[in-house]
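User: I want to check something. If I give you two sequences, will you return the structure for each one separately, not as a complex?

Assistant: Yes, each is folded on its own. Here is the first sequence with its structure:
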Amino acid sequence: MADSKREIERKYEATPETRLPDLTRVAGVSAVVHRGLTELDAVYHDTEDLRLAADSLTLRRRTGGADAGWHLKLPVSAGVRDEIQAPLADTLPPDLAALLRSRVRGRPVVPVVRILSARDVHHLLDADGALLAEVSIDEVLAERLSGKGHGTTSAWTEMEVELADDGDPALLDAVERRLRKAGVRPSGSASKLARALAETAPEGSGRKRKAGRARKAPRTAGDHVLAYVRHQVRALVELDPAVRRDAPDGVHRMRVATRRLRSALRTYREVLDPAVTRPVRAELKWLAGELGAERDREVLDARLRARTAAVPGTLLLGPVKARHQLSSAARRTASRQRVTAALDGERYLALLETLDALLADPPLLPRAGRAPKDVLTRAVLKDHRRLETRIGHALEQPPGEDRDVAMHEARKAAKRVRYAAEAARPALGKPAKRFAKRTKAVQKVLGHHQDGVVARDALRTLAVQAHGAGESAFTWGLLYGREEAAAAERERELPGVWARACGPELRAALKG
C-alpha cells in the first residue's frame, strides 16, 4: 500500500561554489547540522507525449537515500505537492498506476529521463533538536532516455529547502530572505524533471520556451462556454486521484464538476450542438450517479451523527450509536466499491476521451459567434423560468410524498440555474453573481429538505432493524419525528426565500 505525505519546498539556483549563509540567524533556528553527502539515482517515467509533465505530475523510481522506491508527486499549489510513495519494485505499483489512470488512459508509461544527484544535506533544528527543515545542495546530471532528444544530457546545481512534516511555512519565508541577502535566487524551474525536459529537448520542439502561449481571453458566447467546460473537464481529471485516495470532500467535488459540466452542455444548447452533446450528457449523468452513492452516504452519515449527538442521553434507548456505525460501515464499503469500479472501468475512460475530443473540435452553432451578453442571459433566464414553474408546482402540493418529490425536482432545477449563472459570471459580471447567490439560497433550502427525506427513509429502516433484533426503536422514532418537523420548517421557509430570488429587478439587472 502506498504512503502519502505533503511536501512543501522551494528551489533555488546555485553553483558548485555555493555555500550556505549562517541560517542560525533565522528566527527559530538554533542549529544547522551537516548530514553528509547522498547519491541519488532517479528514473522519471511518463507517456511518450509527456502527459504527466504537461499536468505538472512527476513519477519516478529512485534508489539511494532513505526513501528509495516509487514516488508520485501531485501538485497542490505553488511549491506544495502531495507525494505518494510505494516500495521499490521493477514495475510500476498498481496503487500508483490507478492514480495516473485519468491522465494516461491506457497509454504505456516509459522511462523518459534519468537524473543523478549528489546531494549535500543540512538539517535546520530548533532549540529542542527537532527538525524544522532540510536544506540540500544538489549537483545534478540529467539524461534524456526517450524521444528525439534521446541521449542528450544537461548538468546544473540547485538548492532545495524542504519544510519538515507539520512545519510552519513561515519558516520558508524567513529562510528565503536570508538566502536572498546572500545572493541566492529562486529557481526558474518548478522541478528537476521540468528543467531536465526543457534542457534536453531538441531544438525547435518548443519545450525550451519558458512559457507556452497564453490562451486568448474569451470574447464570444462560444468562447465563454468553452472556457467553462474546459475548466470543469480539467477539474474532473484532476480530482480523480483525490477520489481514489479517499481525500476529504474528493467525491463531492468531482461529482459537482460532473454536474456542472452536464448542466452547461444542457443549458447552452444554442451554443453547443445538442445532437452532439446529448450522448455526452447521458454519460456524465451515469458518472454523477456512480459518485452519488458515496456522496449521499457521506451526507446522510453526517446528518444522522449530528441528530443523534443532539439527543439527551436519557433518550438514547438501546445501542443506537453502534447500530448506526454498523449500518454506515456497510454502506461505505458498498459505495466505495461502486465508485472504484466506475473509475476503473472502460466506460469512464471513454467519457474522458470524448470530452477531450469535444474540446478539440467543439460543435459550435451560429449563436456561439455572437456577443456573450444576449446569448448567455437568454439561456440563464430560460432555466430560471423552468425553475419558477417547478417551485410553483411544489408549493401547490399538499404535505406528503407528492410535495417531497416536487421539491426535489425543484432543487435540481435550482442547481441548474445556479450553475448556469456561475458559468455566465465572467461575461455578465455582478448581476450573474447575485443571480447565482440568490438561487443558491433556494437550492440550500430545497437541499436540506431533500436530505431530510432521505434521512427519514434511513431512520425507518434502522428502526425496523432494531425492532427485529429485539432493541428499542424509540430513539429512531424520535429522530424521525424531528426530521419531519425540520422538513415542515423548510417548507414554510421556501416561499420567502424564493420571493427574494425571483424578483423582477434581479432579472432586469441580468438583462442589463
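And separately, the second sequence with its own structure:
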Amino acid sequence: MNHVVLSLSDHQPPAVTLRCRSHAAFVSRLAVAEGRRSIVLHGSDDATAALRELATSAGVTGEGEPPAGGEVRYVPTCAARGRVGAARDGVWPQSVASRQNKALRRTSGALFGFPPEDPAATEAALEVFTTDWSPSPAACAVAVHPGHPLSSGLAAGRGAAFTGRYCRHPLTGDLLPIWTAAWVKPEFGTGAVLVNPGHDAADLAFAREVGLPVRFALAPAGHEEGPGHWLTPPLVKTGHAVRTGRTDGLDHAAAQSEYFRILSERGLARTHTDVGAGSFAVAVFDADGPDKVHWNQERNTIGTPGRDEGTPVRVTPAGVLAVLDPAVRRSDLVVVAPSSAIESDLLALRLLLAEPGLGHTPERAPDVLLTGTVTGRTDDVEADVLEVTVLTAAAAQETLSVKPQQLDTAQRFLAAHTALAGTADAPEGEADPAVLKAAAQVRTLLVRRDVKQAFTHLYRLQKTLAKGETPTSGSLAVYEALAWVALGLSGTRSRGRVDAVWQSI
C-alpha cells in the first residue's frame, strides 16, 4: 500500500504553514527510511477535475461573485454526515474526534420518500427530512436548494422558481410541484423541504409569494366547520387531525405516529438523526488566470456534465481536495494539520473520506499528527534556520514561541553539520560503540515522532563528533542517516547508503 502524507496548512500564517509542512516532510522521510514508498501532498494536482467530481457526487455551493472574488464551498451529503456523526468511518484520535463531535449539530426526525411523477423520466431520488410531520397531509409542494439534482436553477435576482417537475405525496398520492428556492439550506437534511403553508410561518410567506394553496391537516380541539370558524394559518404543533380520512380526530402526536407507521410499511419512511456539519471552503475563485472551472450562476454550482457549464472562473484549491484522488483514498494516509483546523479543514477531509459517491471509503481513519501555532517574530529569519526551529524547538502539538536562543541553536547546528558533512579523509572503520548507543536513542525517539527530544540528543551527538578526533566513516554515516531522517539534511553518503545505515542502527 502506498504511503501518503497530506499536509493541511491552507489559510494559515507562514510560520504555521512551514511548521506543518516540515513535520509532514519528516513523517515521509521516516517512512522512506523504513523502506516504504512515500510522497508528501500539499494539494490537488487537478483542481478542475476535483471540483467537478465533488459537484457531481457530493455538493458544492458558492459565496461571493466570481469577478469580485469568492469561495467554492463543499456541502457534505447526508450519507457522509451520518457516517461521521455515528463514528462509522474508523477510529479517529480522541483529541480530534471529541472536538469535532462537539462541533456537529444533531436533530432527530425522519426521512420521507417522495416518488417522482414519472419514475422512468428521472434517476434522482427525492427524500425530505422533517422533524414534525403531523400536518404533512396538507403539504402543497416540495422545495429544493438551487444545486439540488432536481433543481432547474434560479435566474439572476430570483429567489424561487418552479422546476416543471412533480412528485407524489407518499400518504395521499397527490401530485406536489417541486420548486427551487434560495432559502433552502443544502447542508440541512437532504437539501429538500416539505412546504406546508397552513402549519409553518415561513412556508406561509413562501406560498403567498409564489401562489401556492394553503390547506389544513390539523385544527384545535373542538373545532367546528363552517365559514364562521374557518382556520387562520399558521397552526403549529397543535390540535387534532382533520380532513385526513381515517386519522381524523387523532391528536397531533398520535397522527404523527400513525403517518410514520403507514409510510414505513410502504418503505417510504425511516427514522433519522440529521448531523449538521455546515459547509467548508475548498477553493477560492476570481475572474482571471489559469486553472479554470465553469461556475453556474443559476445553480450556484460548478458546471457538471449534462448541465449548462456557465462562466469560466479561476480557482485556487485547498489541499483537502487531494483526498478526491482514488490513489490517495486507498493509501496508508497520514494527515498533518494545525490543531486550529480540527473543526474546519480536518473535519472537511474526514467528511470527504466518508463520501460514498467519491469512490473507495477507507475503513480506518488516517494517522493524524497535529501541530500547534507559532508566535514570535520570524519574518527576517533565514529559511533553513527557521525550518529547523519550527520542527525541533517544541513538541509538534505544543504552541511554539520562537526565541532568539532557539534560532541560535538551529544556526549552530546547521554550521556544525556543514563542517561534519565536509570532513575529508575520514578514517575507514565501523561506528564507535558509544556513537551507536547514542544513535539508537535518537532513532527510537524519531520513530515515536518526538523530534524535539530526538534533536536534543542528535545535537549532543554532533558536538561529541565535532570535538573529538576525526570520526570514523562508520560514525559519520550513522550521524548522517539520523540528520537526514530528522531534518532532511544531506551529507556525502548516497541515499541507499543512508537507508541501509538507518536500518542497522
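Because they were folded independently, the notes below concern the second chain alone. Residues 14-33 form the longest helix (20 residues). The chain has a mean pLDDT of 92.
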